[in-house]
Amino acid sequence: MDFIFISMPYARFISRWFSHVPNINLGTVHALLKEQGRHVKTFHFHLQLLPYLERINNTTLEKFVEQSEKFGIEYMGLDYVFASLFFEDKYMKSQKRFSERLESIGLSLNDFEDMRNIARSFIDIAYAQITPFLPGCKLVGFSSSHYQLSSSLLLCSRIKNQYPDISTIFGGKDCSGAFAAELMKHFEMIDFVGISECENTVCDLLDFMDGRLKEPGNVLYRDTSGRIVQAPEKPMYSLNTLPFPHFEFETFPLPYHEIILPIEFGRGCPWKRCSFCPDESYNITCQGKTAQRLLAEFEHYQHISEDLNTFFILDSDALKNPKTILDVSKYLHGKGFTFQYAEFRAERMSREVLRALLNFGRWASNFQIGIETFSDRLLELMNKGVHVLKNVEVLKAVAELRVPIQFNLFTCFPKMTSDDMFDNLKVMDMISHILVQENIQIYPGEFYLPTDCPVFLDSHQYGITKYPESIFSLIFEDLGIPSFSNYPYPYAFDNDEEQFKLSHLLRNKVDEIKSEKPENNYMRLTELTDTQATICIVRKGQSITYDLHSREKEIYMLAMEHIQSTDNASHVLNLPVNDIETVLKNLEAKGLILMDFDKKAYLSLALREDRAY
């Protein structure tokens, strides 16, 4: 056996996104090595955990899952259970800390001990499945991206204890950035850490181990003196040249119709500069697949089984090329496929693209658009590369086309002030008739501090004091590793009290808006003639109607679907810019339009009357 590739359970193991989706890294590397004549075996243990747990009638398990989901898997989740088995001695010294954290979420140390027994038995089962393939194996790899690291380390230690000559490699977001070197430093059983995409990395590493290459690429490893060194960076394969992922469906504990297939539209974020995001440290090449390649991949799965018709779109921004979305939608229209998730940045989003997404098939869950805030100053602090007006243009189109979307709103952020929140809430009030729509889901959440993001690397500049250890490391006495996996760091804002109050304001505003019904909170274009546009507004039981005539009507209708600059409005309508600005000032005072931060562009806010409520 040349290579065994393993994916251990994700911390959010109850989510269908994690419990029904095979690991695409395993599938792609399996196919690539198979093409090269290599012997490879893959184990998707994350697919096996939930069926295993369902056979266990354990009320503690249900309670643990419920409470960890409620309070956050980062604070106390499945990965901590596996970690307590791996760091057994440190766990025994840290029981007081564990008890305090468990009690804070309504659990006891006895509950945790029950979970440890369940996790221990699962590791036994996983190791038993791997054992027949270990004799003579050259390399065992672990893909770790969503709090899978502790279980991976635990299983790896079992392998190394019995087969010390087998080399091991870890890779994925749990092992990225500065933490990659920490892994090598603290865990002798790890021989290599991948610091980029897995395909070329694994292929080169096997060639290096066979003596075909003088040095591997894209990994950290120990030289003959034991010093940790970084191999040269090597270019990655083009996604359009990689083979289709190979999955051993017959080994999965799921029937075909329950499998959610991961399909990569691309990799990497085209922006990669948001101040709260550590994507830059993942060393992922930004690239997208062609429509032709994607269509062939869909056909490939259909040839295996027509029941393979549910997909999870993997990509930091699946809208790298809008034309690809349009071309793919023409093929998918009427196929009856189901899609679970996709993620898009807003700046290239348009009504044409949104209509195309609706043609993909049934969206079983809302797809994600990065909104984050309705304050332009905060968007600049976040370095989002987009402004409020564009975000609102997208949300308005979403409301009218009934596209199922979700987005996050930061309830706090470094250097956020009351003025920022005032701007944020003001816009939310103006567009509440959009946000109230049932196809729009809003998730307010606190800012958390991951390693390697710009805020973490220069926290003083961002007005943050961070703790010296991550939330994970704090619970273990003498762990000796300040960071671990993707776990965030505790921190304090320079204006902590103000941030706390602002967080409550935003959460209350979201609750207030989502408690409204669309029929009681709307702004509609109810009548349109050659000479008049009538806008009817209902807010909190109060109704008002505006009749727009002549210039007002023409200026307003020009921006019903798309942002218009004042210069373009002047050109199209053959009116002086000063006249345009005077009309816009009046429309803004009535709350009928939203102006850009520099007053040089605007968007009309009323939804069309044919929108069903």
Short description:
With 613 residues, the chain is an alpha/beta fold. The protein is 39% helix and 17% strand.
3D structure, described in words:
With 613 residues, this protein is α/β, with parallel strands linked by helices. It has three domains: 3-224, no CATH class; 256-449 and 495-516, tm_1862 like domain (pyruvate-formate lyase- activating enzyme, Alpha-Beta Horseshoe), CATH 3.80.30; 520-608, Arc Repressor Mutant, subunit A (Orthogonal Bundle). It has 23 helices and 26 strands. A seven-stranded mixed beta sheet has the order 2-1-3-4-5-6-7, sandwiched between helices. A four-stranded parallel beta sheet has the order 8-11-12-14, with no helix packed on it. It has a four-stranded parallel beta sheet with strand order 13-15-16-17. Strand 3 (139-143), helix 9 and strand 4 form a beta-alpha-beta unit. The model has no long low-confidence stretch (mean pLDDT 95).
SSE layout and pairing:
Blueprint lengths: L2 E5 L8 H4 L4 H12 L4 E5 L4 H6 L4 H13 L6 H9 L1 H6 L1 H10 L4 H22 L8 E5 L5 H14 L4 E5 L7 H8 L5 E3 L3 H12 L9 E4 L5 E3 L30 E4 L1 E2 L19 E2 L2 H14 L5 E5 L7 H11 L5 E2 L3 E2 L6 H8 L3 E2 L3 E3 L6 H7 L5 H14 L3 E6 L7 H13 L1 H4 L4 E6 L8 H4 L6 E3 L24 E3 L2 H20 L6 E7 L3 E8 L2 E8 H9 L5 E2 H8 L3 H13 L3 E3 L5 E4 L2 E2 L5
Parallel strand pairs: 1-2, 1-3, 3-4, 4-5, 8-11, 11-12, 12-14, 13-15, 15-16, 16-17, 20-26
Antiparallel strand pairs: 5-6, 6-7, 9-10, 18-19, 20-21, 21-22, 23-25, 24-25
Helix pairs in contact: 2-11, 4-8, 5-8, 5-9, 12-13, 13-14, 17-20, 21-23, 22-23
